[in-house]
Amino acid sequence: MKIIAIETSHDDTSVVIYENKKIIKDYSFSQTESHKKYGGTVPEIASRNHLDCLMKITKELIKCDMSNVDHIAYTSEPGLIGSLHMGKLFAQSLSFAMGIECKPINHMFGHIYAVSFTEEIEYPAIALIVSGGHTQI
Q1: Which of 8, 14, 93, 130 has the fewest Cβ atoms nearer than 10 Å?
Q2: Model's pTM, two decimal places?
Q3: Residue 47 and residue 45: Cα distance in Å, rounded?
Q4: Count of C-beta atoms within a 10 Å radius of residue 77
Q5: Residue 56's CB: how many other CB atoms inside 10 A?
Q6: 25, 75, 92, 119, 130 from 21: Cα distances, Å
Q7: Would you state the torsion angle of the CA atoms of residues 30, 33, 35, 40, taken in this order, to the nearest 10 degrees?
Q8: What is the per-residue pLDDT across 36-79, written as a single tens digit (0 to 9) for each?
Q9: Phi, psi of 114 (to 5 degrees)
Q10: How far apart are CA 13 and CA 102, in angstroms?
């Protein structure tokens, strides 16, 4: 299975091409410097920066083998609404252009299931997430 995954929940922009439990391509951009002078993330600046970063990533994705992509996944919640919206629009645009399904993914579930990249998850399972300003058990 080949998936394009898009993450824009806060102030970093990431797009990954994932195939058969392996990361094929990984594009990530940090916005730390853009927000440093404000002492924290400014949501409007984060959203605009995501747009710039996604345009750079698009230019790189065009060079990749995009055949046989099964799904496009994007972070749908929780996060900064403007940042999430940028990722959703990007995912939906790719989905429309490629004629494949687009799936919203909860950011917290992504943290839980990311362990399956390197480890087998045995069910039933319990997970503890401590991430940013929220904790879920």
Answers
A1: 130
A2: 0.88
A3: 5
A4: 13
A5: 13
A6: 12, 19, 24, 10, 25
A7: 80
A8: 999 989 999 999 999 999 999 989 988 988 889 999 999 999 99
A9: -60, -30
A10: 18
